Fold this sequence. Notes:
Elements: E1 3-7, H1 15-31, E2 36-41, H2 44-51, E3 54-57, H3 61-70, E4 73-79, H4 90-103, E5 108-113, H5 121-131, E6 136-139, H6 142-151, E7 158-160, H7 178-182, E8 192-196, H8 205-219, E9 223-226, H9 235-244, E10 250-251, H10 258-266, E11 270-273, H11 276-284, E12 289-292, H12 296-304, E13 309-310, H13 318-330, H14 332-362
Parallel strand pairs: 1-2, 1-4, 2-3, 4-5, 5-6, 6-7, 8-9, 8-11, 9-10, 11-12, 12-13
Helix pairs in contact: 1-14, 4-5, 8-9, 8-13
Amino acid sequence: MKTVVVSGYYGYENTGDEALLDSIIKALKSQMPGIHIIVLSVRPEETTRRYGVEAVNRLGLSQILSALRRADLLISGGGSLLQDVTGPLTIPYYLGIVALAKLMGKPVMFYAQGIGPVNGSIGKLLIRLIGSRVDMITLRDETSASLLRQIGVRRPPVEVTADPVFAMEPEACAASEEVFRALGIPAPAGQVVGIFIREWQGQKGYKEAVAGFADTMLAKGRQVIFVPMQYPADAAPAREIAGMMDNDPVLVEEALGFSRITELVRAMDVVVGMRLHALIIAASCAAPMAGLSYDPKVTDFLRSIGQPVLEDLESITARQLVEEVEQVFNNREIVRKNLQDIRKELRQKALRNSEIAIRLIENR
């Protein structure tokens, strides 16, 4: 039996990262049904229960070493692991796992990663030294490939694929209003606008803009639902925005898994999102969208699929957001058709990640 160890930001109840893990596990098992998967997770018991895989504590060195000794491949990814915006220890942690695997003579694959931003010289040095020694790199966008070249990573093969979430089966997007009932949300009487918001560096401007935008949507007879991708972190800014409004939106006040959020997104007419994987799930379900960008990865993704994005979070206005979303509403059937075509291409690219991983194992 072949064994793969998967390293990423897992177990933190971030639905985007859990969607990545779910997609990676399913893709690997579809390619090699008997594969044994070990996930490095901050909540290993929960990860085992949820996905039916072995999991060990991502902060326990002895457990990590034991897992790596059994590995036929280390997968580092997916997601934005190699960046220093979330803290100075992020890059050293993930590359430390990679370095341990290479010291043991194990093959390593960067799996559909998004690279950057990387501002510090130490982070760039570590990426150049350790990244140059992995066996294969797949990336989810061309910007990441360009950044790796600038940093000086040139030795391993690099292929631009797509985010693993795009590999999910189309039937996972089946629309159903049952999801509203399951969450205790009144059945929408009109069009539904889903908002996926997050905190960002103490900024207030985008919250005021979203509050005004949401009031305008409600005044037009539309239902507005705030959905957390990471609970309870995303619930706090949603409540703050609701407190700025003249009307009452729907606030989802619980942690939702990948499948439940996918159901919700498919039942929405338009998605407005800050969280990258809320937008990726929307694209996977051909749901029209508009983005608020706090990070280049959000801007790059939306531009790559031809969807609108507002970038300056502190200066955007409710009027700007209303205008963008009204254009999406007016053209949403065309947008859906375009996204359906894009989805097919991205799904094939996403499946390349697992194909490459299995080939590395088989060639070992």
